[in-house]
Amino acid sequence: MAQQPLKDRIAIVTGASRGAGRGIAIELGAAGATVIVTARSTRAQPATGYGQLLALSGRPAVPGCIEETAEEVTRSGGRGIAIQCDHTQDEQVAALFAQVMRDHGRLDLLVNNAWGGHESFDGVFDAPFWKHPLAHWDSMMDHGVRNHLVASRHAATLMVAQRHGLIATTTFWDRNRYMRGNLFYDLAKAAMTRLAFGMAQDLRPHGVASVAVSPGWMRTEYVLMGHQTDEAHWHERPALARTESTRYVGRAIAALAADPDVMARSGQVLRVGDLAREYNFTDIDGRQVPPFELDAADGT
């Protein structure tokens, strides 16, 4: 078996039934971690609230579930544990962290990835802010940024008592360029980046690190659906040439979690492409995908 620098570590990855969360959980498992996989979607009960997105894609239900991700974690070399949790429900989040402490007695890593932004997706990417629906605020701020804050409060209580731990928050950041045409998304991701920075200031005296991690353009299930392809055939779509797999960000977070000097990075926003060079890892296809950067037409 390959080297497992995270053997015996306990991690929670929120929003891990699909997308970045799934890729992160699998790579943490490959590094040897026990990964608690959380989200709303189970095999028996897919998450609701994605009606607009499903109508646009022609799919009957959202792809992925926590059981599938947990099984992939175990197959990759770790131990995957699926726990259903709606991160918009504070009592469910509290119960999740209480269960982790009862069952494992510690928490080494929290990956904040639960994101409700797709719930209000209406097919419009580029429009002035006054033409985007206010529903984006609820899905991206209340069901996105707030999810991260609530989970972090519980994790911080445990990690401060231990005097070690890492909170990693997934975001999007391109050197403070503006995501023109999508103010709500830009605002939510900026808030997540600032959340990671602010938490780092409070956590630093206790030996706990907080970072924001920014992947590039990922080939999530929704992106592949939008381009009418799959992971086996994405190379046939020239428009996807700049994309990276969801496992790439997973390798970045696994490298950070294994770094004994991660406290030196606390408070920073880190691009996955930069971390690939620094920690010398590649994406699953062997490429070292450079950091994603907005085109001049995309932002300023």
Brief synopsis:
InterPro entries: NAD(P)-bd_dom_sf (IPR036291), SDR_fam (IPR002347). It holds the Pfam family adh_short_C2. The chain is α/β, with parallel strands linked by helices and 300 residues long.
Tell me the layout of helices and strands.
Layout: E1 10-13, H1 19-30, E2 34-39, H2 51-57, H3 66-76, E3 79-84, H4 90-104, E4 109-112, H5 135-162, E5 165-170, H6 183-203, E6 208-214, H7 221-226, H8 246-258, E7 269-271, H9 272-279
Parallel strand pairs: 1-2, 1-4, 2-3, 4-5, 5-6, 6-7
Helix pairs in contact: 1-3, 1-8, 4-5, 5-6, 8-9
Structure description:
This protein is α/β, with parallel strands linked by helices and 300 residues long. The chain has a single domain, classed as NAD(P)-binding Rossmann-like Domain (Rossmann fold). It contains 9 helices and 7 strands, in the order βαβααβαβαβαβααβα. It has helices at 19-30, 51-57, 66-76, 90-104, 135-162, 183-203, 221-226, 246-258, 272-279, and strands at 10-13, 34-39, 79-84, 109-112, 165-170, 208-214, 269-271. It has a 7-stranded parallel beta sheet, with helices on both faces. Helix 1 runs parallel beside helix 3, helix 4 (90-104) packs parallel to helix 5 and helix 5 packs parallel to helix 6 (183-203). The longest helix has 28 residues, at 135-162. It is globular and about 45 Å long. The model has no long low-confidence stretch (mean pLDDT 91). This is SDR family oxidoreductase. Pfam families: adh_short_C2. It comes from Piscinibacter terrae. InterPro entries: NAD(P)-bd_dom_sf, SDR_fam.
